[in-house]
TrEMBL record:
It comes from the Eukaryota. Pfam families: Carn_acyltransf. One of its GO terms (molecular function) is carnitine O-palmitoyltransferase activity. Residues 4-82 form the Choline/carnitine acyltransferase domain. Belongs to the carnitine/choline acetyltransferase family. GO terms for biological process: fatty acid beta-oxidation. Gene3D superfamilies: Chloramphenicol acetyltransferase-like domain. This is Choline/carnitine acyltransferase domain-containing protein. One of its GO terms (cellular component) is mitochondrion.
């Protein structure tokens, strides 16, 4: 955008296939590591991605998952995370 604004050519890097592929973060997260914020949100940065805002405080953990309905199922992903955490918890107890 700066190059265009200044009337300069856009650097070749921005046309590189690998560079553009590496900018497609399907899983985008942000931690809310504070005792004063109970939960929050974080949106996906690509249309087919998930945004996950999470918090770990003491012995508790929570997250808010968002996605574009037409591309991903945030509820299904949340259930998979819960199931995974239950499995880990079960194995740690045994």
């Amino acid at each position: 955008m700066t190059a265009e604004r200044l009337g300069r050519p856009i650097p070749e890097l921005f046309f590189d296939k690998t560079y553009n592929y590496m900018g497609q973060f399907v899983l985008s997260t942000s931690t809310l590591s504070t005792d004063t914020i109970v939960f929050g949100g974080f949106g996906p940065v690509v249309p087919n991605g998930f945004g996950i805002g999470y918090n770990v405080a003491g012995s508790k953990m929570g997250c808010v998952i968002s996605s574009y309905r037409s591309k991903r199922d945030a509820a299904k992903f949340a259930n998979a995370i819960a199931e995974s955490l239950d499995t880990i918890h079960h194995h740690l107890k045994n």
